[in-house]
Design goal:
- This protein is of the alpha/beta class.
- It has 13 helices and 10 strands.
- The protein has a domain of about 200 residues: NAD(P)-binding Rossmann-like Domain (Rossmann fold, 3-Layer(aba) Sandwich), CATH 3.40.50.
- The strands form 2 sheets. The chain has a 7-stranded parallel sheet with strand order 3-2-1-4-5-6-9, sandwiched between helices.
- Helix 1 runs parallel beside helix 2, helix 6 crosses helix 8 and helix 9 packs across helix 10.
- The chain is globular, with a radius of gyration of 20 Å.
- It binds NADPH dihydro-nicotinamide-adenine-dinucleotide phosphate (NDP).
- The site of NADPH dihydro-nicotinamide-adenine-dinucleotide phosphate has 25 residues, from helix 1 and strand 7.
Length: about 350
């Protein structure tokens, strides 16, 4: 694989950054797309390339325009299409999310299909394209698709983009694999606030008086990156969707892990469950709470058995992901350390 070039779209993103690291660590050459080469924050990726001695370059291409995509895929053996809008709140106009997701995916796929070099595309979809709108009476798998009545824009965007990708792959004969992660946790590579870490950030930073009654199925970002590589290297993966996510847990379970680890270090971690009326009231002022309301009380039941059986994929324990997430939020200063923590650190150094 030495020198085999992989295109990673949206290289500045949380998951994409770890995918770049996974590829460079395994000896692939990486080309990343960014929206604007002059302003893109890629120093953390350049540092990884320097550390691994890997080949990394960037090209400019946006999901909203055809410009740059033919050039981006040229000479790449694989394309990992990861870029897609993932806002923490509900946009005013759903097309702000849906159009870049669907049209952008088709732009990337068209250029990949037209290129002589691309052998396979791995698309980062989501369990948002699988689990939305189903009741929690059974465990969902890759044969399920989210039901689009009354769905939030982001969930709709992922479902429509993945469906468009499969339609395109069928018509063009292109090799496609989708990775469908649950809520992605895990360490940051730079100081920023990825949407999927917002809940842990708010709990650790004591921004919430109590935790919302939300169910989730989570996965570590490093395991998501590993799944992309397995999807690339496993010949029989072509034509398949793979759920990469763990068992159902409640946000209060995540809070309990944080409380056990961080209360003794002076962090005020809420573990009480927020009553529905409080979430509803918060939703009048806080767009994130408004979004959470639509998922309140629902369990998230999916199975990653297919990824385990067919790709040999494994997941690290949730506790490890939660603690590593929290440590990196503190380490990068995204959440302020407690006075106790600061004192202990000062005494140690
Ligand atoms: P990020 O917001 O960190 O990354 C999204 C990336 O997409 C960024 O690089 C962003 O660029 C890029 N992007 C967004 N809109 C456009 C656009 N119009 N043109 C070009 N690039 C664009 O999110 P994640 O890393 O968490 O998510 C990455 C992918 O994984 C997405 O497809 C998401 O749907 C999927 N996913 C995420 C999960 C999670 O829990 N995190 C779970 C399941 C799936 P810029 O940096 O310039 O804004």
């Amino acid at each position: 694989m030495e020198g085999t070039r992989v295109l990673v779209t949206g290289a500045t993103g949380f998951i994409a950054g770890h995918c770049v690291e996974e590829l460079l660590t395994h000896g692939y050459a990486v080309r990343g797309t960014v929206r604007d080469q002059r302003t893109a924050d890629v120093a953390h990726l350049e540092a990884i390339a320097a550390r691994t001695g890997g080949s990394l370059e960037f090209v400019q291409a946006g999901l909203d325009s055809d410009a740059g995509w033919d050039n981006a895929v040229d000479g790449c053996a694989y394309v990992w299409h990861i870029a897609s809008p993932f806002p923490a709140t509900v946009p005013r106009d759903e097309d702000e999310v849906i159009r870049p997701a669907v049209d952008g995916t088709l732009r990337v796929l068209r250029s990949a299909a037209a290129s002589a070099s691309v052998r396979r595309v791995v698309l980062t979809s989501s369990i948002a394209a699988i689990a939305v709108g189903h009741d929690a009476s059974r465990v969902l798998d890759e044969s399920d698709w989210s039901l689009l009545d009354d769905t939030q824009p982001y969930q709709k965007s992922k479902t429509l983009a993945e469906r468009a990708a499969w339609d395109f792959a069928r018509e063009s004969g292109m090799e496609l694999v989708t990775i469908n992660p649950g809520q992605v946790l895990g360490p940051l590579q730079r100081p920023h606030r990825p949407t999927s870490l917002e809940m842990i950030r708010r709990i650790l930073g004591h921004e919430l008086p109590a935790v919302p009654d939300l169910g989730l199925s989570s996965v570590d970002v490093r395991d998501v990156a590993a799944a992309h590589l397995l999807a690339t290297r496993t010949p029989h993966a072509a034509g398949n969707r793979y759920i990469c996510s763990g068992d159902h847990l409640w946000v209060r379970d995540v809070a309990a892990i944080l409380a056990e680890e961080y209360r003794p270090r002076g962090y005020r971690i809420p573990t009480r469950v927020m009553p529905y009326w409080l979430l509803w009231t918060a939703g009048r002022f806080d767009p994130a709470a408004r979004l959470a309301l639509t998922f309140a009380g629902r369990r998230q039941l999916v199975t990653a058995r297919k990824a385990r059986d067919e790709l040999g994929w494994t997941m690290r324990p949730v506790r490890e992901s939660v603690i590593d997430t929290a440590e990196s939020l503190l380490g990068y200063g995204v959440v302020r350390r407690s006075a106790t923590d600061e004192t202990v650190r000062a005494t140690r150094s």
